[in-house]
Design brief:
The chain is an alpha/beta fold. Helix content is about 50%, strand content about 10%. The chain folds into three domains: about 80 residues, Orthogonal Bundle (Arc Repressor Mutant, subunit A), CATH 1.10.10; about 100 residues, no CATH class; about 170 residues, Dna Topoisomerase Vi A Subunit, Chain: A, domain 2. A five-stranded mixed sheet has the order 6-8-7-9-10, with helices on both faces. Helix 8 links the parallel strand 7 and strand 8. Helix 4 runs parallel beside helix 5. The protein starts with a helix and ends with a helix.
C-alpha cells in the first residue's frame, strides 16, 4: 500500500511543471489507485507518513506555516517540488557570494566599509571589478566619459548608465571616484545664426517631434525669435530621459549664451506631462523652468487638426497641470475636448508658425 502511495506522489510531482503541487491532485490520483475499502482516516494517516518520508529523502518540501495545513485532515494544502539542479545552483551561488565577501582584499578608502556586506551576487561581482580598478589605478589618471570607463572596468559600456547622477551603492562610489564623467546624449539643434550678436540673450525653442522641428527652424529663419530650435526627440519621461534632456539643454544654453527655454509639443495628456516632468527635475537641480510657447499652442487649437487616440493616455491626464502649463484660457479649450481628441503638433505648418509668432 505504502509503495503505491509513494509512487503515486512521485508521479504527481513529476507531472506538474510548477513549483507547487496541490494535495487535492495527489489525493485524487491516490484514490484512483488504492482499494475503496480503505477509509479516509487510514488513507490520510498513511499519506502523511509517506509525505514526511519523502521530505526526509529530499524529494519534496512540506509547508512550514500552520495556515498551509488542513486542520481536519492534518494534511498539507500543497507540497513543494524540489529541483535538484536549482538547489545545486543556489548552493553554488551562496558559495560564490561567501568567497567574494570574505576572500576579497577590499580597497580601504571606498570599498572596505560596505562591500563585504553586499548580499546579491550581481552587486558583489560589480564591486569586485570596481575594487580591482581602484587597487590598480594608475597615477595621474585622466577622467574620461562614463561609457569609456565602464567598458574598461566591466567589459560592458552601458553598466554605468543608470548610475550617472546618484553613483553606485547608494552613492558610496561616484563617477568621479572612477575617474569618469557623465556624457549626455546630444540634442540636435538648428542655430538661427553663427553671429553671436544675433543669438545672445534670445530664448531656445524645444520641439517634441521631427517634422515640426523642421517647420519651426524654417519659420525661425523668418521671425528670428529664438537663438536655436532644438529637437527634443519625442522626450520619453521614463528612466534617465528627463535627466538627459536637462543636461543636453544646459550644454546648448551655455554654448549659445541664450536666455530662457520655450517648449512646444503635442496637445494631449502625455504631451503636457513631458515638459512638466522635465520642469520637476529642473526645479530639483536649481534650474529655471521651461515655459509653454503659448502662441503656438493657441494656433494649434485654432487650426483644430484633431485625431483620435490610438491608445489611452488617461494615466497622464491631469487637469491641474494642464492649467499650470497652458494658463486658464487655453486650458479651458483643451480640457473641453481632450478626453475625445488630441492635437498633434504637426497640425501647424511653417506658414502657420510664422503667422503665430509675428
Amino acid at each position: 500500500m505504502d509503495n503505491i502511495l509513494r509512487e503515486t506522489i512521485i508521479g504527481s510531482i513529476a507531472a506538474v511543471k510548477g513549483k507547487r503541487v496541490q494535495l487535492s491532485v495527489i489525493v485524487a490520483n491516490v484514490r484512483r489507485l488504492t482499494p475503496a475499502s480503505i477509509g479516509d482516516f487510514e488513507m490520510q494517516k498513511r499519506l502523511l507518513a509517506v509525505l514526511k518520508e519523502l521530505e526526509r529523502e529530499g524529494q519534496l518540501l512540506l509547508p512550514k506555516t500552520k495556515k498551509c495545513w488542513d486542520t481536519q485532515s492534518g494534511l498539507p494544502n500543497y507540497v513543494k517540488v524540489v529541483c535538484k539542479k536549482e538547489e545545486e545552483a543556489q548552493l553554488k551561488t551562496k558559495a560564490e557570494i561567501s568567497l567574494m565577501q570574505e576572500g576579497t582584499a577590499w580597497e580601504p578608502k571606498y570599498m572596505a566599509s560596505f562591500a563585504y556586506k553586499l548580499k546579491k551576487i550581481v552587486d558583489l561581482q560589480r564591486a569586485v571589478k570596481i575594487n580591482t580598478y581602484l587597487l590598480n589605478r594608475p597615477a595621474g589618471v585622466i577622467a574620461i566619459p562614463h561609457r569609456e570607463r565602464a567598458l574598461r572596468i566591466f567589459g560592458d559600456e552601458k553598466v554605468l548608465d543608470s548610475n550617472t547622477h546618484e553613483g553606485l551603492f547608494n552613492g558610496r562610489v561616484t563617477l568621479a571616484d572612477l575617474d569618469c564623467f557623465y556624457c549626455p546624449e546630444p540634442l540636435p539643434f538648428h542655430v538661427l545664426s553663427m553671429e553671436r550678436i544675433e543669438i545672445t540673450g534670445k530664448p531656445l525653442l524645444v520641439v517634441e517631434n521631427a517634422n515640426t522641428y523642421w517647420s519651426c527652424w524654417q519659420a525661425n529663419a523668418v521671425v528670428k525669435c529664438y537663438a536655436a530650435v532644438i529637437y527634443g526627440q519625442g522626450f520619453r519621461v521614463m528612466g534617465n530621459a528627463v535627466s538627459r534632456a536637462n543636461d543636453g539643454l544646459l550644454d546648448i544654453e551655455n554654448e549659445l549664451n541664450s536666455k530662457g527655454i520655450a517648449y512646444f509639443g503635442d496637445l494631449d495628456p502625455t504631451g503636457i506631462a513631458i515638459p512638466t516632468r522635465i520642469n520637476d527635475r529642473r526645479k530639483e537641480n536649481g534650474l529655471p523652468a521651461l515655459y509653454a510657447e503659448l502662441n503656438l499652442y493657441r494656433a494649434l487649437l485654432d487650426t483644430n487638426h484633431t485625431v483620435d487616440y490610438k491608445k489611452s493616455q488617461l494615466r497622464d491626464h491631469d487637469p491641474q497641470k494642464a492649467r499650470q502649463w497652458l494658463g486658464d484660457e487655453l486650458a479651458a479649450r483643451y480640457l473641453e475636448q481632450v478626453q475625445q481628441k488630441r492635437w498633434p503638433q504637426e497640425g501647424l505648418r511653417t506658414v502657420d508658425i510664422v503667422a503665430a509668432l509675428q
